[in-house]
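Field reference: sequence -> structure
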Amino acid sequence: MKKILFILTVSLLTTMTGCAKQPSSNSKQAETPSATTKDDSVIVKTLPIGLPTDEILDNIAAQFKNKVIVIDFWATWCPPCMAAMKSIDPIKDKYIKDKKPVVFVYITGETSPLEKWKSTITSIKGYHYRLKNKEYNSLLSSLGVRGIPTYYIIGLDGKHSWDNISTGGYPGDETITAEIEKALNKKK
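Structure field:
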């Protein structure tokens, strides 16, 4: 009974706060598509082949000059990630409706199975990257990310503005909105 209670408690805490990084899969998967999905508000992006890990965020920032970039590190197998995406939808919709220079970027790795990832992102407005495990794990490691979801905001100037790497999990609607607003109002 104590073992079952312990497992349920750990499961509940993981669901409420965040997921640890799932170990890399050794199985080979098909390349990530670089086409736009049927909904133009859901766009699949790829990185240049051979891009060094320490240039990934700079490459992404360069694609969205003069915009605040809200990056969500996530996975299809992570219930807290999926719940956070639902929570952030009204915030995202408001920035889109108000035509604010804010973009939402979602980054995952191959631990999100390709077909599951493709079907999941159709309802997640934004720009989507599915990195190779080596790229994804190196990026998370270089940033110090210990679990997902984790958020990283790049300001209008293309530089780091805020993150919750040290705590992970969804920081809440108020925090995300406040940090986006700070990044929008920061002088270049």
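Note: The beta strands are 19-20, 42-45, 68-73, 102-108, 126-130, 147-148, 150-154, 160-163.
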